[in-house]
Amino acid sequence: MTENAAQWKAMTLTVDEGDRLDRFLARSLPEYSRTKLADWISAGGVRVEGVVRKASFPVLSGMVVEIDAPPATPIHDLEPVAIPLDIRYEDEHLLVVNKPRGMPSHPSPNISRSTLVNALLARSHTLSREGGEFRPGIVHRLDKDTTGLLMVAKTDVIHRALADQLRDKQAERRYLAWLFGHLAQERFVVDAPIARNLQNRLQMKVYKNGKPSVTHFKRLLEGSDATLVAIRLETGRTHQIRVHASWIRHPVQGDDIYATGTWRHGALQLHAGYLGFDHPATGERLIITAEPPYDFREHALVPPRALEEF
Known about the structure:
Largest sheet: 9 strands, mixed
Helix content: 10-25%
Strand content: 25-35%
Number of helices: 6
Structural class: alpha+beta
CATH superfamily of the domain at 174-271: Pseudouridine synthase
């Protein structure tokens, strides 16, 4: 066992939604490869409700998964890095940060640059450990090139409460995006299940047997070749907005994974500009907004209250 593995403290995770055990761990611990996680499970280092299970065991929402020492120590830089952050709300329990473009939310095996986690570790406060050793404080994530608001928990109790609100749809996330072409309807809903693309592991895809995924769209402005939309998430799958937009043939501008041709170039035009949730300690409903960055297309024309009135 490596030195870091010897120092590892047993971890407890609560299942957020039904899935296979191995897939749940892959989502919860992205810093480890699926092969290592499978070895870990086979070695008896993972228990569901106190019982060692196979990788294919179906875990259900609310089940408790206990994890012993990891199979190997992943190489990650968790050094604190003093990076200025745009904090939109903070108290002794939590903070909300406006994440800039190009900053990953947390470390992973294919990331060499500093992440939001590195910047958070340089601040003088605690961070929750509920999300895993390499995701301290991170309650939910944004893609590297998506800008906007993220909740960060300072304690495990607050983390669990915020995660429960996301799962139960009490917390609300809204986005702005420029989509290719013109939309026929002012408002519409895309209800299409999403799963990992079987032909390309870097992508997600609409599959009939995927996880339920629901996205609400509202047309705000029309440009010569694109439409500005407000987007409200009812579920929170990986790449959900980008997958649904591409599936209806109106991909997000600057999406180098799901768009094609010249439309995939430039800054990703997707911004998480609205976050609403109940403060776990006070019960107060918090509504936090953030204007789009200056490289967001025609950002000066975005209606100031566009997301608040969705």
